[in-house]
Amino acid sequence: MLVIGLTGGIATGKSTVSKLLKDRHVLVIDADVIARQVVEPGTSGLAKIVRSFGDNILLPDGSLDRKALGSIIFKDEQKRKQLNAIVHPAVRRAMFWGVFKCWLKGHRFCVLDVPLLIEGPLWKLVYKVVLVYCPADIQLRRLMLRDNSSIEDASSRLNSQIPIRDKLKYADDRIDNSGGVEELNAKVDAFVVGIRKEAGWSWVVSWLIPPYGLASAACILAWRAIRRSYKMKEKDF
Domain containing 65: what range? Predict the structure, then answer.
């Protein structure tokens, strides 16, 4: 089974692409959904966040006040790293379990929708990194419009992430979302056709003979790691 990593940046349209994939019956494991689940009231994740950031990041009903927490971490890199150290391990565990269940059900491929795929180690573990991309000026304009925010606030949020242009060197494929809805739909259609063809039918053997599947996955990841290393060096020059 092929595991595809889908990522992007704030306001590049990654969530829209993820929805379009689901509309085409592609199995998507959404890190944002899982991230909300692991910090619901009563979870160990929320308890750890409260210990680190205080009760002020809670709403009256005991749930996480994401806006209050966001105002802290977007302006303080150390605080952001502290939060990531709490949330990311729990999210990764849940995502790996989701992939395993996809494999058990005999799916040819699945898509991991991960906003911070490149910032973390997961990009090294997927078969292919797909980046939803648009130029930085369009990204800023869309973010201001989406959140009704000032240019200062929008720029602050953008600066809290790796610049979208720097993510390009990690991408095996990219979906350019600079245009309109029809153009994006056509690109998503082409991507789905391509990945289904690439997945082929070897997944049947991998599913029926698990040791073969594990060995095959290890070889693919090792080969792609070598190719990515050379590709990234070439882009640095």
Answer: 40-106
Q: Is residue 214 part of a domain?
A: yes
CA 217 – CA 195 distance, rounded (Å)? 16
Contacts 24+ apart (CB under 8 A), 195-200: 195/2, 195/4, 195/109, 195/128, 196/108, 196/109, 198/2, 199/1, 199/2, 199/108, 199/109, 200/108
C-alpha–C-alpha distance, residues 29 and 114, integer Å: 9
**Same-domain pairing of 146 and 193:** yes
Sequence-distant (6+) residues with CB within 8 A of 146 are 11
Task: Give the other-Cβ count within 10 Å of 27's Cβ.
Answer: 17
Shared domain for 102 and 140, answered yes or no, is: no
Sign of the C-alpha dihedral, residues 94, 19, 154, 66? negative
pLDDT tier for residue 47 given thresholds of 50, 70 and 90: very high
The residues near 18 (Cβ < 8 Å, ≥ 6 apart) are 6, 28, 30, 111, 113
Which tens digits make up the pLDDT trace of 153-200?
899 888 888 899 999 989 999 999 999 999 999 999 999 999 999 887
The number of domains in the chain is: 2
